[in-house]
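hey can u check if this looks right to u? its 100 residues, i copy pasted from the old doc so theres a chance i mangled smth
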Amino acid sequence: MVLPSRRSAGMVAGLALVGSFFLVALGRIDDRLADAAQLSPMFYYQGGEALSGLNAGWTLGLLALAILMAGLAGWRFARRDIRVAGEGSLGLFPRRLSKA
């Protein structure tokens, strides 16, 4: 809803997911990145480790974050500006007026 097209939104989401994965993986190797890795939701993903014991605190934290993001998405969807994909811009640069 914030970016001008679905492609750019998908690209940013994909880059964030891959970046988060690498940050968590490198945080387990290098202690200097461990604090930054804790800011990523991928850090709290348990996967198969949940079978041996589910961490209820992490699960509730991720659930609360998911509910917050769903509420934010619903609010942004209600306030959406319907337009053709790629028609507008982010509004960072003023439009040039043509002199006729």
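The first helix runs from residue 6 to 29.
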